[in-house]
Design brief:
The protein is an all-alpha fold. 86% of the residues lie in helices and 0% in strands.
């Protein structure tokens, strides 16, 4: 997975700075997200202490407002950086492909299909444009933010922190398995997407012949076959990844329940006060949120990598 992330980072080229900014903004987004936990903790302390003062309520309201406003502003700028990076990194690659095709031998297109190249510069690179920066920022940012949140929980209560760490390690093991499974199917899926574009363009170019000789239903056999193969490849990816996604969700929820059960046990044993026990219930449903967002981006990781590999194949075309 690290090698694939490096490949996307290298492909970004001049847009690496925007991706880096988006990751930094995503980190502060997670910090403002933790303000919600602080607001809940203030309220819980007031309830457990039997306070009737309005000060805790105002403090909680201030923390919530800061969390909402901070996340809204940071998310806006982070998304702008990702969009800018995705658009221009692909635009630069398309320009590079165009310059490359100016210098290919004159007989190159006698043996190679222009439709396949068109599919690479449109459908294949669209995958990189729309999801490439999001995948990179989502995975790296999610892992960093998860580590920060885990450290906070460890300092707060090391027993609950170790349980959260175990859940994250099991989740990462399943994530690694899903990434390897995706690597087996993603290249074929991207090739089928490019062939579908090639078949559709060929169909459109020959539309006059199809209409003149009434070949509808016969002349579009290649398009139908390309559609079938593309649908089969997409379904294969979904079927292969669904068990991993289900297992990941089950693991995280089981560890959340285990954290709550341990909090109750520690409270009854007298080693955890009531306020911290109640906060553990809240933290159990929030501590895995960042690593879960990172995991949701892994499904598209290999698709982006396969798209980049196909685009880079154009660089291997011999020049005059």
């Amino acid at each position: 997975m690290i090698g694939v992330l490096k490949k996307i980072w290298h492909f970004a080229g001049e847009e690496q700075g925007n991706i880096r900014k988006s990751m930094i903004l995503g980190f502060f987004y997670a910090v403002f997200h933790m303000f919600q936990i602080a607001a809940i903790y203030v309220v819980v302390l007031a309830l457990v202490g039997g306070s009737t003062d309005s000060t805790p309520a105002w403090q909680a309201l201030g923390l919530l407002l800061a969390s909402i406003l901070g996340r809204a502003v940071l998310n806006r700028f982070s998304q702008l950086q990702q969009t800018h990076a995705g658009y221009f990194m692909v635009a630069n690659k398309r320009i590079s492909i165009g310059d490359k095709l100016k210098r290919v031998p004159m007989g190159y297109f006698n043996d190679q299909s222009l439709g396949e190249l068109t599919g690479i510069t449109t459908t294949v690179l669209d995958e990189v444009e729309s999801t490439g920066p999001m995948v990179l920022v989502g995975i790296l940012g999610g892992l960093i933010n998860s580590a920060v949140m885990l450290l906070c929980v460890l300092f707060w209560d090391w027993r609950i922190g170790l349980l959260a760490l175990a859940g994250m390690l099991v989740y990462l093991a399943l994530l690694s398995g899903m990434e390897k499974q995706s690597a087996k199917i993603a290249p074929k899926r991207q090739r089928d997407e490019a062939r579908l574009v090639e078949a559709v363009l060929e169909q459109l170019q020959g539309m006059s012949v199809i209409k003149s000789f009434n070949l509808t239903g016969k002349g579009d056999g290649r398009v139908r076959a390309a559609l079938t193969e593309s649908a089969r490849a997409n379904l294969a990816i979904e079927k292969s990844l669904c068990p991993y996604i289900a297992l990941q969700e089950i693991v995280l929820h089981l560890f959340s329940v285990a954290m709550i059960a341990c909090a109750v046990w520690f409270y009854l044993a007298g080693t955890l006060n009531l306020a911290d026990a109640l906060m553990t219930v809240v933290v159990a449903f929030m501590v895995f949120s960042q690593i879960q967002s990172a995991g949701s981006a892994v499904a598209g990781l290999r698709l982006v990598a396969s798209s980049i590999d196909q685009a880079d194949e154009v660089d291997e075309i011999p020049e005059m």
